[in-house]
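Good day; I would like, with your permission, to put a structural problem before you. A protein sequence and the structure tokens that stand for its backbone fold form the material at issue. Thank you for your consideration; the sequence and its tokens are set out here:
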Amino acid sequence: MHLLENIKEAFRSINSNLLRTILTALIVSIGIMSLVGILTAIDAIKASLNSTFASLGANSFEIKAKGYTNRFRRGGVQGKTYPAISYLQARQYKQQVGEQAKVGVSAFIAGAVEVKANGEKTNPNMQVVAGDENYLLIQSYNLQGGRAFSPTELETGTNVVIVGAEIKDKLFPGQSPLNQYIYMLGRRFLVVGELEKSGSSMGGGGADRLMLVPLETGNQLPRQRALTYDVKTATLDATQLTYLTGEATGIMRAVRHDALGQQDSFELERSDSLAGKLDALSGNLRIGGFLVGFITLLGASIALMNIMMVSVTERTREIGIRKAMGATALNIRQQFLIEAIVICVMGGTLGILLGVGMGNAISLFVGEGGFIVPWLWMTVGLIICVTVGLASGYYPASKAAGLDPIESLRFE
């Protein structure tokens, strides 16, 4: 008997024991679903978080004062803290960088603001941020309508505002918010721009709950404490990012009057370093997910081997008849191996489809990401299916191939 005839015989055997085949395939599909599902979920979550980090700009870095988030060194000794970056220092840094890159200066004004207009009011969870002319560009926020701040408005601190989509939908449903007035923080603001709807994968509302005012206007608004300024620098040329970070470090040291030999009073964080941290984290998650899926798949392979052993026992007389008709041990081994592989591939295909759906469904709980098709994990899943079929079916197939034809024919 040649290979094609063995394949046909394997399919005939599967068809004659359809219920057992379906149950066996389901065992394998559960194992493959857990493996592919976990890995797909990790990739989908990573893609969703990458879209969030993209708002920082692909080739940008942020400068912050050092010592605000880590006040204590190892051993409980209090570390040295440095004053926050002042408005004057931020302006000096921006001026000295010049045309080498785009520098955006912004300040967080308030994060629990209630906005009123047209007799309506929003929930008290809107964010007010003051920014300069480069803020929208560096944050990758796009205007749905209206315009950005004019140079005069930026210089004089005019009461104008650019609003997010959620604020527009709440206060101006079915109409344009442009040239309308809103009230917040005890002042009246003219709406000059509207941001595109962005959503958020971090649960904070993204740009949809944002109200952007000119930086000078933000300096005039009432507040309980001094503003902390964020300084972000971006370049269109990724190859210049390393050089630019060195230049920025030197400029900021001069602006902050850091003495020669003294450590930097600020820290510089590149956006691609965040992506690197995310890659490292997702890599560790993949290893953990693969181990969990592998353990589940190991249980499925043991169950498959047990069922194949039962099948060999039930078909002992059939094996004896085939050997008496001239079938070799190789023919018998091939038949049972092919049968095990076909069952695994059937179950694995179902498991891959369920795993892809499950992984993308899990990612929806983290954020708004597009549906991804993990071709790599689908291919790996199919390869594993064949491997599991070979591993689980080899011993039963070898046992079947080694049966004595005379004793097999006597088997009842």
The chain is about 55% helix and 15% strand.
